[in-house]
Amino acid sequence: MSQDTLFDKVWDLHKVANLPGGSDQIFIGLHLIHEVTSPQAFGALKDKNLKVKFPQRTVATVDHIVPTDNQSRPFKDNLAEQMINTLEKNCIEHKIKFFNIGSGNQGIVHVVAPELGLTQPGMTIACGDSHTSTHGAFGSIAFGIGTSQVRDVLASQTIAMNKLKVRQIWCENKLSTGIYAKDLVLHIINQLGVKAGVGFAYEFAGPAISELSMEERMTICNMSIEGGARCGYINPDEKTFSYIKDKLFSPKNENWENAVKWWKSLVSTDNCIYDDVFKLDASKVEPTITWGITPGQSIGINQKIPSLNEMHPNDQFIAGEAYEYMGFKPGQSIKNTPIDVCFIGSCTNGRISDLRVAARVLEHNKVAKNIKAFVVPGSEKVAKEAKEEGLDKIFIKAGFQWREPGCSMCLAMNSDKLIGNQVSASSSNRNFKGRQGSPNGRTLLMSPAMVAAASITGKVSDVRDFINK
Amino acid sequence: MSVKFKPPIGKFSQINGKCISLVGDDIDTDRIIPARFLKCIDFDSLGESVFDDDRKTLKGNHPFDLETNKGSSILIVNSNFGCGSSREHAPQALMRWGIKAIIGESFADIFYSNCIAIGIPCFTLPKESIKKIQKYLNIKNLFLEIDLFESTAKAEEFKFDLEIKETSKKMFLSGEWDATLKLLENKALIENKLNDLPYIKFNNN
Ligand code: SF4
């Protein structure tokens, strides 16, 4: 049983009661909602004749279904219009703060909350979305919940949950040039496997993690769920505090000092106890790309797609399925795999630093013929900042389409979809069968810089060949 | 498929039904219910869309399309079932298709808690036992009687000791899986908690 880790401290602080069944009743400090997983929860409240208990502790935005080309209302897609409409009505009825399109603060929920300063160390954060783990980058305990639990949070600001175990993932040394947080987290998931995190919170630590910017840390924690961990976090430090300072909802004046003092007290103590520790050498990580249908099926750019006999027996069944679905053969190189679509965006890699890195690769280059390439900023704020820096022009000049903020082709609930068995180079987080909108579409996950490199050559390429030039 | 849908209510300790097997590890919630079906404001019509892409790909040969599996209510799966997205639409779609309980090697965390929250008990069995059941199901139908209290699944030919988290088991036996009202019983404690949390104070700008 873990002891004195940040997770333990935050969990204990938020525990309201032991429930008779044996689970804990946990208070949720910040509840984020969006249009896809909340309507049924509000419906259930109505059925049970209940009210939202603390409306000021819930914040809403709209992201999954929004079109990223023409956002004028009503949306062309009736169902999408109905969903945003339902969210608007629910927020008005229950007096919930809603950052709608055009507010300047709309965007993917996991991009928006940190940039508004809503996400802070020591909070419990829940959202009807598995990538809520993103917010753990700030030293909060943040996890995805289903719609019934969204209902519970709305009604009681609490949920019933069993305490997780804690695994520390210690990343020694530093990432090399041209290697990014995305490569590191894909590598971690590959090493531990996609189920290793079940029942665990992941604490990411070590020199390679301290070195990362807040946005890179968000990329790491974002993908904890792809390793099976419902929640991932990083102990807060000076970088964390300076990111939060002066944001719209950050503590101000004398409250700021108190906040920082408290945040510092939450850090896992030197002699804390973990349920497990896993160590890896970050300097060994290569640009990493997925070749299969789970985020754990990845290799370095210069590696070959593994054959069954190189794998643990437990991984062979899904590998067989992956070869067939992806059309890859064991022993084949991933490098030079032809690409059809390039997508830069999502809550994993749709932030300003991601766009900057990709733009740097694209500057003075052109997207290869017959490649559809588009960039979807993670939020209105990201889009604004990018425009101020002229990044949009670099993308457009290179041949990318510049879109409006949303989830877009990360899960293809709008009209951005793969067609047939197209191959996408994607900065998002899931390469599941059918994830990007076509039942036989194929997704290769990689860093935004690697997506940019692939867009130029039309093939999976090593971004280091572009940045070292 | 045209089973009239009745959501479970209150406490229960017994689930009897025909088994349906779905072979494969890491079957994610995008496969269980593809994202295009999430464009809805209720869960009512999800049952028929469960595994839509996989079923279309297999052109009638998917377990959820086979005549022999009609009316099944106990789903047998392998490891890390339900990984990926938190969409409750996934267990809701399974439930509306007719699934009342799931037995597998292992489950993803959020999927598991979604199942508990909507009244679908998920049990685990070792890989070998699952294989044994799946092999048997290739040849014949299997009806299981699941006793939650005893944590057993019985058929004429088999008896398995099922594993289920003690907390989940208690929730079904007591009816507390439908948690909202139980949580609200601690109203005073919740309000105290709100007043105690340091960040509530210093975010009062
Ligand atoms: S960007 Fe993708 S993963 Fe992130 S919240 Fe949107 S759909 Fe989910």
Molecular structure report:
- The complex is a heterodimer of chains A (469) and B (205).
- Chain A has 2 domains: 6-264, 2-Layer Sandwich (Aconitase, domain 3); 288-467, Aconitase, domain 3 (2-Layer Sandwich).
- Chain A has a 5-stranded parallel beta sheet with strand order 5-4-3-6-7, sandwiched between helices.
- In chain A, helix 13 runs parallel beside helix 16 (448-457).
- Chain A is built from 17 helices and 19 strands.
- Chain A is globular and about 55 Å long.
- Chain A has 469 residues and is α/β, with parallel strands linked by helices.
- Chain B is an alpha/beta fold and 205 residues long.
- Chain B has a single domain, classed as Alpha-Beta Barrel (Aconitase, domain 4), CATH 3.20.19.
- Helix content of chain B is 35%, strand content 15%.
- Chain B is built from 9 helices and 7 strands; from the N terminus they run E-H-H-E-H-E-H-E-H-E-E-E-H-H-H-H.
- A 7-stranded mixed beta sheet of chain B has the order 4-3-2-1-5-6-7.
- In chain B, strand 2, helix 3 (89-97) and strand 3 form a beta-alpha-beta unit.
- The longest helix of chain B has 13 residues, at 127-139.
- Chain B starts with 13 loop residues before the first strand and ends with a helix.
- The model of chain B has no long low-confidence stretch (mean pLDDT 94).
- At the A-B interface, helix 2, helix 3, helix 5, strand 8 and helix 10 of A face helix 2, helix 3, helix 4, helix 6 and helix 7 of B.
- Bound molecules: iron/sulfur cluster.
- Iron/sulfur cluster binds at residues 63-64, 108, 110, 129, 131, 346-347, 407, 410-411, 428-429 of chain A.
- The site of iron/sulfur cluster has 13 residues of chain A, from helix 12.
